[in-house]
Amino acid sequence: MILLVLGFSTILIVTFSLVALATGPTQLDKTVQQRLAAIKAGDMQSDGSFEGLQLLKISRTSQFGWLEAILEKYGISQKLQTRIAQSASSTTVSNLVLLSLALAAAGFFVSFLVAPMLPLELGAAFILSCIPYIFISWKRSKRIQAFNAALPGAVDMMGRALRAGHSMAAAIEMVSQDAVEPAAFEFREVFKQQNFGLPLRDALLQMLDRVPSQDLRVLVTAILVQRDTGGNLVEILDRTVFIIRERLRIHGEIRIQTAQGRMTGWILSALPILMLLLTNAVNPGYSSVLMTDPGGRKMIYAAVVLIVLGSVIIHRIVNGIEV
C-alpha cells in the first residue's frame, strides 16, 4: 500500500513538473519581456536619474494559463482574483487552486494511511483544501481592519489640507505620502489614477472595490454627494471622520463584550477532539471501537457534523452584530 502511495505521488509530481515546463515562457515571451524592459528603461535620463510616471502596470501572471482559462470560463477566476487583490497577496489564481488541490491530495492519502474510511478521507481532503482560501480571507480581513484603523487619520489629514487651501488632488497626494499603511497605498493608487486622467468618482469607486469597508463607503459617499450637490467639504469630512471614529469605538466595545462567546465557541469546538487525543495517549486502543465498529463510525460522523454545526451557530450569534 505504501508503494502504491509513493508511486502515485511520484506520478503526480512528474506530471505537474512536465506541465510547468510545457507552459513555461517561450522565446517569444522572453522577447516581449525584453522589449517591455527597454520601454521602461527609456524613461532613464542621460545623467542616470529617473523621471516621469511608470506607464506600464505590472500584473501578476502565472505559468498555468490553461487553468486560469478554465476557471474564467466558469466564472471562478474573477471572484478569486478579487479576493487576492483585496488581501494584497502576491499569488495568482492558478497557484492558489493548485496549492489547494495539492493539500487535498495530501490530506486524502494521509487520512487513508491513518484511518482508511472514505468519509474521513474526504473530510481531511476538504479541510486541507480550504486552508489557502482561509489564509487569503484572513489576510483580507486583517488588511481591511488595518485600513479602517488608519482611515480616520487619513481623513483628518485630508481635511487639514483642504482647510489650508489645497485642492482635492493635492490633499489626496498628501494623504498618500504621510498616512499610515495600507490607507496610504490605496490613496496613492487613487492619486496615480487621477494623474492618468481617470475621474475622481471612478478612482474612489475602484478603491472601494479594492477595500470593501463600510467606513470607506461612508467617506466615498460623502465626497461624491458633495461634488454633485455642493457644500462645505471640510465640514463634511469633519462629520464623516467623527462618524467613522464612533463606529470604530462601538465596534471595539462589541468585540470586548463578545470575547467570552468567541472563546466559548473555540473551546466547545476543540474540546471533543482534544479529549479523544488525550484518551488515546493515556490508554491506546481505548477508542479503537469507534474506528472498527460500524456503529462507532456513525457516532464519529454525527459528532463531526454536530461540532461543525455548533461552531457555525456560535459564530453567527457572536459575529452577527452590525454597527
TrEMBL record:
UniProt entry keywords in alphabetical sequence: Cell membrane, Membrane, Transmembrane, Transmembrane helix
Residue stretches making up the Type II secretion system protein GspF domain: 155-277
Record's subcellular location: Cell membrane
Top-rank lineage group of the source organism: Bacteria
Record-annotated membrane-spanning stretches: 6-25, 93-114, 120-138, 263-279, 299-318
UniProt keyword Transferase, yes or no: no
GO cellular component: plasma membrane
Membrane topology per record: Multi-pass membrane protein
Listed name of the protein: Type II secretion system F family protein
Lineage: Bacteria, Pseudomonadati, Acidobacteriota, Terriglobia, Terriglobales
